[in-house]
Structures
1.
Amino acid sequence: MNPIKISVIVPIYRIEDYLPKCIESLLQQSFKDFELILVDDGSPDNCPKICDDYAKLDQRVKVIHKPNGGLLSARKAGLDAALGTHIAYVDGDDWVDHFYLDTLYKLAVANDADLAVTGHFREFDGKIETIKPNNPGFYNEERIKSEILPNAIYNGEFCEHGMSTYVWNKLFKKELLIKVLYDISNDVVMGEDAAITYSYLAISKQLVISKIPLYYYRQRHDSIVKSVEDPKTEYYRLGLLMNFLKTKLSPVLDKYNLDKQITYYLYSQILVRSGGLTYNQQKDSWFNPFLKTTKDSKVVVYSSGSFGQHILSTNLKTDYFKIIKWIDVDFHDLKIGENTVNPISSISNNEFDYLIIATINPSTHKSLKEELELMGIDSSKIVKIDTDITKIQNLIEDLGFDQNFIFTKKTN
């Protein structure tokens, strides 16, 4: 009888400062019947040695050294070697609660669930935020298809997921994961987790969602800043993801609902990666999604996360807005151009025309807007993102995506 119930797979690349804490948190689990598969994806730092050292200390640790092939290839390599009936994925720069595996496994077994989902903690610069799913409970196949999948990617509020994309707060059955993971092209390097989660959900018959937070997700500002590549390359990659989702979800969702979910998801990803402003070559003009704002508007940008950083980086190139200040409640040392992050208490109404909250999540937008209003900021100056579906569809078509969300304009 196979004693291994869970295979924990950790893809590893350039995270030597964080990896020991991750591994220690897993080896100290209250749940014992697991193996830990460390997948060194050709990491050029000290990670390979760290992996090997832990393997010498604990027989539960299995190490795979492979040439760099990206996150999906590492996840696949781990699955190839897995002996457990269930699979958990953990990112090597994060860490987990002492009862992470125990709770996930009991949730899965007690409900005979194909997928178990929990809450998580978000850690940033020493601050920890608890994030819990909005829809806890047990779902059979009928409810998955009628309640979960129609709102999984886009829940009716731009652009909030009904089911989180992350794979690390979930426990999968190996026999089902095998059916979807290998179908995902390794060229999908944007939204890899979404490709796994949503395609797996489409073949799940029983689902359990718990509010218990068990996973510590480390939000690293040094991991966010990435130079935006040639837009055509990025659109091609996004098209791979969106077309894959359409293919896998078409059997379980009606075309109208599926196309709407993917349209909003694609739009949100284009916005984040482009810093909001998107050059529309067909119309030889910039598409500005921030309602009320115009070129040369004096703007304050709230959020130093991925979207906020891309807004600052894009504006350096386009000089579209006059960015007066960059603020965040998660105040930390970060600079883009001449702008550094300031605390939210540093602004006053007479300094700016509009304030952009750099988030595509409506719940986050609402919460931050309320905090700003309590600080005396004029609510009429806090802008929203344009979510007119017709404008979005026209933009996506003009950029070069076809009806199946494939990017048809080839890269240079």
Note: The chain has a mean pLDDT of 94.
2.
Amino acid sequence: MVPVGLRVKPGPMEDGPDITVEPPDSRGLRQVTRGGEVVGSAWSLKGLRRVLRRLGHPGDVEVEDGTLVRWRGGDSRTWPDRFVKRRLTIAFMMAGLLGSMALLVVIGTPDALGGLTFAGRITGFLFVLAGLVQGVSASAVLDYWGKRRVRFSGAAVLLGALIALITHSLLMFLWLQEKEYTPYLLAYFPLWCWSLWALCLLVRERTWAGIPHPRSFAAGITATTLVAGANLVYSSMYQPAAQPILVDLEARFGKPTVDSRTSFVELPLTLRAQNRGKVPAYVLGDDYSVYGWMVRFSKRGGGLKGTKEAMETESDAARYVAEQKSETVSAGRFLSPGWVLEPGEEYTAEKLVRIPRTADYEALEAYFSLTLMREDKGGIDVWEFQEPHFSWEKKEGRFYCAPSECGETLIYHGKVRHNNNLVNVTRRPRYVTTWWSVTPEDSSSYVSISSFRFQPKGSVEEEEREREMDGYGVVNLYAEAVVPFASLTGERE
């Protein structure tokens, strides 16, 4: 007999079943509660028995016993979980996120650790960070398509899919500009298609429902995308335009001396290059030549002479010059290809030109040229590029060319990469080639950048060559000096 006024808590038999199996959700998962508190979940009857064993019930408990288990939304045979489909979805989602993570880390690491510009390093760091976030998203896939014990696992998966769509869309956009085959295309094109599928699936799942501040979440993704895009534009367009190459080039004749033993005039020639700007520059090609000009005069005048030739060669026309021609007196190099002129650095070379005192020259002219490439627009494998190849030697393989056809030429060849690795992975590799030769008539230096591993001089279309040279910020600089030959000897023979 129970005393009056004393309330006794009813047991399971008096208050109904102790365990309740809730109706299946949209994926087929059924929650298990006890006294209104969630104590587990199950995809199948086997899973339910595991929950019951954890709660202290025997493994062979009779689940149809209405005194122990209450069934809502179906009985013990109602398990709509589509096991194979769910596992395939998990596998496909994780494969895409992990593949995207690997690609972004591979693309971003070279710029993050050794970018040619600060903006490029920031872009590389953002790509590596985005890849690491996708790694976290991949781990959240198991929970989101599992029992969803972590509240924001769906948001994490959505973030990973958005990052994949944004980054691979950027890569596809860059690729479409040139449409060149690159092995990376076999990675980011399938991943771009995967990101569209993943995002459509997650939108149907309404994964943003668990995000506490969805607008802030979207704003963060947008801001990150804008920063990465701004860095790419800044490093590839604005910065090179705002900081042009400022290199002073000078050719200057010195004070001549006459060797009394040989009656030769020894004329010093100073060649100087100084980088006054803030941008380091690679030397791609260099050359200097000294020409002796022979002139036949006409005292009668009668108008400017050589006007047609002057217009064709953009040279000078002279009234009292009836005929003039030149021949090469001396030729050589200033710096070898692959040298880098750092900001503030100056390099000077002293040459000595020897000419017979009785030479029939009216004037001497020095012509000095230098071809430079901005270091912030591209990087060169200098160890490969600085090694000369002799075109006349058969052991040079693909660089060999019969002297009867190509003469004797020094060839420098090396790989060049863009200052942003996003461009490198969306283009075929580029190569820079420099030809330098000296003939009895003249010397010349010729530089080409193209997508060919190596092509003979002149085989690359000039339009493509100019476009590639402009893309890497290549400039050609010239300096000239002229001195009357009579001033070297002090008299006229």
Note: Residues 97 and 149 are 21 Å apart (CA to CA).
